[in-house]
Amino acid sequence: MFCPKCGKELAQAAKFCDKCGTPADFSQTPPVENTPNEPVEEKAPDIYADYPQTAPAAPASEPEKPRKKRLALKIIAVFLAAVVLISGVAVLGYHTFLPAKMTLKAAQYFSLQKSWQQLDQALMRTQQKVDALYDTSIKSDTKINLLMDSNLLSSFGLDKQTAELLVGFINDFTFQAVTEVDMPNKKENISISLNYLNNPMLSLNGFIDNDRIGLSLPELSKKGVAGRLKDLPRLVELYPEDLRYSGLDSLSGFDPWLSSSMAKEFTIDRKDLKKLMETYGMLFVNSIDSSDMSIKRRRTTQLFGEKISCQEVTITLDQRAQMDLIGSLLDTMKDDDVLYDAVFSKGAKILEMMASSNPLLAQGMRSADMQSLFSKSQIRMLLSSLKRSLSKDMFPKYMEIKVYIKGYDVVKYELELPLTTPGEKLIFSYENLIDGNESKKGFSIDVNSGGDHIAAYLNIDKQYDEKSDTEDLLVEFNADLAGSVPGNIHLTFNSDQDPNGAKEVKGKVNLALDFLINDQSGSFSIEADTRQVRNKNGLPENIEVIADISLDIPSALPQPVGLTTVFESDIQYDVTVTPPDWSESAIDLATASREELDAFIMEIMETIDSIMELARYMY
Q: What does the alpha-carbon distance between residue 117 and residue 109 come to, in Å, rounded to a whole number?
């Protein structure tokens, strides 16, 4: 008898093959015997039948790659499963059984990160515009036209015919301002004029060239005056009876470019700003004892007028806990080097810069050493002193704060404080929703005190489109007053921008104010269409605004009045700014005599008299 699988000869009583373990089959026909000269080939069991046999087996010394690959895949699968399990447990715990403090810390952290991302992008956009102002020379030519309603003049007592005549005359006037500014080289020219039918009637021209200034009135005098700032006290000497208290002498050391220097000095590194935001954003949560917190799941609250489902963390602080919270804040500020460098150190530097360019301020601060006054040791001493001065009696009997968490975001804070009179209290709330470049913020206050009730809110809804660099903004304010001064004030501001091609942006602006105070009502509104053309860097080259302004106050005006304003500005960049030609022949303040200045003033006065006489003749 032979094995039906491997062909080995078996004993008569064998039930299994002692080589491959196959059950013996007694009904099987014995295999054909090989010839004596041909040895029997014992076939090995096919244990690799499930694998392709296209390549020879690797030598024993080489690693078994398929097995190691399968092992690596198993390890990765186990790791991923562990991550998913841990994440699931964390998410489940966050929404179901984590304690109040841990839940609030996680939500506060994620909310701060979203707020920072949005703030960081806004700072970058603002910095680009600031750099264009301070690092590039700019020329702008701005014209403003007023199209007046005759009712406005009639409300001042003029008869209708005279009002219409004056309105026609006024509507032909244009206000124009041309400025050239080169901040890096400390040069600026400015020309302000009142034009009639596009012809200058009265102009005021000025320039600043480092510390040299000049002024001219070309329609009133052929000459101008110019000199250095240090020459201004001479005017007080020449005209002591008229200019003794004018303050001109204090301008002798004034730096007209102080704003540029201060802007660069007060720049805060965004990394430091983020660190400050995280430190003081988390300080509130970290400083409160967990025993003062409680949490309720699956709660509902109003958020921007809509009901939402959320988690509610309630924080109740007695006087001692409030004092400890303020003490923790002062301790953190005392040891915070980033805060010192960003605020106190820069503040001292800015005060020194202001004092160095303003003799009056320098005189008031002559006994103060800014570096010593704002030194790190002095600031720490001040903050420590403030902490030692704290006492429980300085704080209300209790403070209740409710924090509402939706998902992983803190969306609302609500603070309740008792006032001095029993039953009177203040409730303040702050609502915040951030989604990428969109944000909503809401502030509300409700106060009952002394028989008066004030309920007010401010909502700000902003949506920014990064691709087109446009922004929509909605601001709404409302205040209801009851008690000694009843009434209502409602203000809305709405601005929408939409791209119109690759370089143009069109928009609409609406502002409306309505009020009712002690039965006196009124309204004020502005409706404007805007247009902006930008260059390749996204900076404006042309701005146009047409605004309709209306005013209706029945108690003061017999009828509503209206006014249309047309604003247009052309802007150029990288221009060359040089002092005007007339500056070379101007009267020099350093050497001018009183007689020379008197003649200049007399020429101006005589020209004004001639213009007034002509106006009386024409009208």
A: 13
Question: Strand 306-318 and strand 398-406: pairing?
Answer: antiparallel
Closest CA to 586 of 215, 296, 270: 215
Query: For residue 450, is it left (φ>0), alpha (ψ between -120 and 50) or beta?
Result: left
Q: Dig out the tokens for 415 from the structure.
A: 């603070």
Segment 495-548, tens digit of pLDDT: 999 999 889 999 999 999 999 998 899 999 999 999 999 998 889 999 999 999
**What whole-number distance in Å separates Cα of residue 550 and Cα of residue 524?**
6
For 151, 176, 208, 557, 558, the CA distances from 156, given in Å and listed in that order, are 9, 27, 41, 9, 10
> Around 606, how many Cα atoms within 13 Å sit in the side-chain half-sphere?
8
Q: Which DSSP symbol is given to 342?
A: I
> Tokens standing for 208?
């600043």
Torsion of CA 315, 318, 323, 324, to 10 degrees: -60
Cα 417 from Cα 431, distance rounded (Å): 18
d(CA 119, CA 8): 84
Dump pLDDT digits (tens) for 484-502.
889 999 999 999 999 998 8
Give the separation between CA 579 and CA 207, rounded to whole angstroms. 7
Tokens of 339: 């805060």
Own/partner long-range contacts of 390-396 (Cβ < 8 Å, ≥24 apart): 390/323, 390/326, 390/327, 391/323, 392/319, 392/320, 392/323, 393/319, 394/323, 395/319, 395/322, 395/323, 396/319, 396/322
Retrieve residue 180's tokens. 């050239």
The answer to whether 213 and 207 have CB atoms below 8 angstroms apart is: yes
Mapped onto helix, strand or coil, the DSSP state of residue 57 is: coil
| 263-266-268-269 Cα dihedral, nearest 10 degrees | 70
Residue 574 burial by Cβ neighbours in a 10 Å radius (0-12, 13-18, 19+): exposed
Q: CA 405 → CA 308, 430, 545, distances in Å?
A: 10, 13, 43
Looking at residue 180, what is its pLDDT? 96
**Which tokens sit at 418?**
């008792």
User: How much is the average pLDDT of 238-259?
Assistant: 81
Is the Cα torsion angle 225, 228, 232, 238 positive or negative in sign?
negative
3-state secondary structure of 216: strand
Q: Is 419 helix (H, G, I), strand (E, B) or coil?
A: coil
* Listed range (17-21, 104-108, 218-222, 387-391) with the worst mean pLDDT: 17-21
Nearest 5°: the CA angle 389, 393, 398 is: 125
Among 500, 436, 499, 433, residue whose Cα is nearest residue 467? 499
Strand 438-449 to 487-499 pairing: unpaired
**Do 174 and 223 meet the contact criterion of CB atoms below 8 Å apart?**
no
- The yes-or-no verdict on residue 615 having pLDDT over 70 is no
Residues paired with 192 in a beta bridge: 177, 204
Backbone angles phi, psi at 64, to 5 degrees: -85, 90
Q: Residues of 351-387 as b/e, b for ≥16 C-beta within 10 angstroms?
A: bbbbbebbbeeeeebeeeebeeebbeeebeebbeeeb
State percent of the chain over pLDDT 70.
83
